[in-house]
Amino acid sequence: MAEIYHQLIEGIKSTTWLEFVAVVFGIASVIFSRMENILVYPTGLINTILFTYFCFSWWGLHAEASLNFYYTIMSVYGWILWSRANSTTDNRQLTTDKLQTINNKLQTSNLKLAITASTKKEWKIAIVFFIICWMVLYIILKIFTKSTVPVSDSFASAAAYTAMWLMAKKSWKTGSGGF
After folding, report:
1. Is 164 exposed, middle or buried (0-12, 13-18, 19+ CB in 10 A)?
2. CA 104, CA 88: separation in Å to the nearest integer?
3. CA 51/CA 68 separation, integer angstroms
4. Cα–Cα distance between 140 and 143 in angstroms, integer?
5. What average pLDDT does this structure show over 14-39?
6. What is the mean pLDDT of residues 44-62?
């Protein structure tokens, strides 16, 4: 236990001020997301831009940098969409009213929007998707970068890309054990 504590303290001591800034903005982004506040986007952008830089330039985690770059693009996209929706309060109110109506109908009819379990076919597709992502990322890292950890970097990033795809489909079931 003392060794774990020592490693934690040493890790904190070796963290740069810029890394702390990135972490603070990441935490702020999560809080703003929970509050459904548009500040989720600028705080998220600062976080993901910094982590893209860290992963690519400092840590040599190029596949992880690509994930953060993807999150950066999605933050810009989300910010634009949210800004357009907020530019006309009628549209925002209409959307809020529609959501409230749907919510009321769901509550009165005992229907639930649930995350569905993936079928065996969907899991096979997800596993193939994961393996292809892993192989492509690994090859890119080996050929085009000086990555010191191409296997683990490509594995973690392929898992994240696959998880994002499954979440987008809402087919990830808690307790499924993942891969």
Report:
1. middle
2. 25
3. 6
4. 5
5. 92
6. 93
Q: Are the CB atoms for 132 and 162 separated by under 8 Å? A: no
Contacts of 26 (CB under 8 A, 6+ apart): 43, 44, 47, 51
Residue with tokens 């919510």: 103
The pairs formed by 167-176 with CB atoms below 8 angstroms and a separation of 24 or more are: 169/122, 170/115, 170/116, 171/115, 171/116, 171/117, 171/118, 171/122, 172/115, 172/118, 173/115, 173/116, 173/117, 173/118, 174/115, 176/117, 176/118
Alpha helices in the chain (DSSP H): 2-13, 17-34, 40-53, 62-87, 89-109, 120-144, 150-169
- Per-residue pLDDT tens over the stretch 122-151: 889 999 999 999 999 999 999 999 888 999
Residue 23 has pLDDT above 90, yes or no: yes
Q: How far apart are CA 99 and CA 130, in angstroms?
A: 34
Structural contact between residues 174 and 116, judged by C-beta atoms closer than 8 angstroms: no
Using CA atoms, how far apart are residues 149 and 84, in angstroms rounded to an integer?
Answer: 42
With vertex at residue 22, the alpha carbon angle to CA 19 and CA 25, rounded to the nearest 5 degrees, is 150
Structure token digits, residue 151? 């296997």
